[in-house]
C-alpha cells in the first residue's frame, strides 16, 4: 500500500508540473507571469527594466475609441503584478489622455514599482501633425508630461520623431539639461537614423532607441541596430506583433472600427493585406507545430534577437496580455528562427510601414550644429 501511495503521489506531481508548464505556454488565466518576466539592462547607463514592456498607446488613441479608464487601470496593475513594469506612453497619444490615464494608474505608490517611459516631439496643429525639437518646446513638453503623469521625473524620455529643422545636438542638449536637473533619468530616440543616433550620442549617452521591429518590419537591421549595439544603446521594439496582424492575420482588418488608424497603413490596404496573409498562415503553421499561438511565436522571434532587445507589445485585454508574456517561455531553435525569417523575405510583405506623410527614420537627417550658431 505504501508503494501504491508513493506511486500515486509521484504521478500527481508529474501531472502538476506538466499542467503548470502548459499554463506558462498558454499564458495562464491568473496572470502568474512574474516568474517568467525577467529583468534586463537596457542600454549601458544603468537602466534596468522588465524583459518585456507594455505599450499603452492603444488604450487611449489611434486604435478605435478610447477604452474605459477603469478597465485599463486594472490591466496596467495586472501587468505590474505580473512582472511587466516597463510602461510606454507619449504626450501625443490622445493627445495627452494616455499620459493622464497612466497618471491615474500610478497613484498610491505604484509609481515606485515601474520604469516609466514617455515621449515628446509630435503635436496636432489645425488637424495636422507637426514635429518639434527646439529647446523651448522640449522643456515645455517635459513639464506638461510631469504634471499629467503626476510624477517628479521620467525614467526614459524619448524624442518620438526627429525635428529635421533643428540640429539633433540642440535637441539632445536640452534633454541633457533636464537630466542634469533630475527631471529625466535617461534619454531615448525613436525612429532615428544611424547617423542621427551617432550625433545625438556624442552630446549625451542615448540609453535606448525605439523602432518598429517584427517579422515583417526588419528595415532597421541593416544600419540602425548594428549602430545601437556598437554604442551600447538598448533597443525597444514597438509593434512587435505587426499591430495585431500576427494575432489573427487579414481577418482582423475587416473588423477595424471606422476611426482605427490602421486602416490608413499601406500593409492593411485591400490590395496588400491578402498577399500579406500568406506570411501569417505560414507563421500559424509553425506555431501549431510548436504548441503556441502565432502571436506568441512572432513575439518570441523578437525576444530571440538579443538580450539587448525589449519588445513592448500593446493590448487592451488582460487575456491577451497573459498570452504575450507567455511568449517569454517559447524557445526557438536556430532552424526554427531561420524558417521564420525565410517566410518574411523582402517580397513576402507588400506595403510600406507608414503612409508617405508620416516621418520615419529614413528622413531624420538634421542640419549641422554649425547652422544654429
Automatic annotation (TrEMBL):
A Pfam family reported for this protein in Swiss-Prot or TrEMBL: Aldo_ket_red
GO molecular function: oxidoreductase activity
Domain (NADP-dependent oxidoreductase): residue spans on this chain: 56-342
Keyword field: NADP, Oxidoreductase, Signal
Protein name stated in the entry: NADP-dependent oxidoreductase domain-containing protein
Signal peptide: 1-24
Keyword Secreted in record: no
Assigned GO CC terms: cytoplasm
SUPFAM superfamilies (alphabetical): NAD(P)-linked oxidoreductase
